[in-house]
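Entry 14. Ran structure prediction on the chain below.
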Amino acid sequence: MSDPLDALEKSIGTLRRAIRDAAAAGDTERAGELRMQLRRAERAWDALVDAGEPATAPPRPAPQAAPAARGSQLPAREHVHRALMLLGVPAAPKLIVDVHEAFFPGELSTSKLSSLRRDEERSYRSSPGARPYYLCPALAHDLLTPVRALITISTWTLEQRIIGPLSPRVDFLSGAIRIAEAVHTSAESAADGASPEALRLLWRFAVNIPDAMPKNASGHEGALDAQQVIGAAQAELDVHTETDRANRAAAARRPASPSVTTSSCSARPCAA
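Output, structure tokens:
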């Protein structure tokens, strides 16, 4: 008769491969189901070991929290980069911190962002292109001067980093869609659904978008429908996108003054 520990370990390995394949295929529903099966198999493995199975059994693989622990040790600039990549639009420090808290491990504060922005500029001035990316201020559409209240990534196109007359609303709606998509993915793949921080963040977006809130929300974030938020945000975004894109494109074609182009990550990409 086969060792039950061996059978469970084989099952755990099979489930992990299946989760990886489902995630690669974008099948979040299947990946969520498989993760629940994996957790049950791992708990059964623990129970057998605790019950006194042979000590020669191989040690249990690192727990699922290990990736999060590694993520929590990343530098602050990596935390900011991940939050901005999730949003996909220029963002204020407080929003960046809120996105990080909602979806990523580790600590990040607005005070860290203040010193980080100064460090990024010093690094770029001393050795342009030495880093794969820089955290940069957004740019005003009229003079291409830095909008230091908003942070972007140097690897984004110049148009993405420009703020035109309609850009604050367009970026708000685009960010809402990205947050709603992340919440939907979390709800589908995680056994306990999206985190309370993620739901509160989505709520803050939804209350400022027509038709994004459920009729019977009753002040509870859990009543939100991420797909409804996406649909409502996209409906308004469709009205403004073309005009905003044209304004940004026109500004990007305008040559910047020397004082701007020598500023950290301002009017030209800084990545190598």
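Strands lie at 135-140, 146-153, 162-163. Will compare against last week's run tomorrow.
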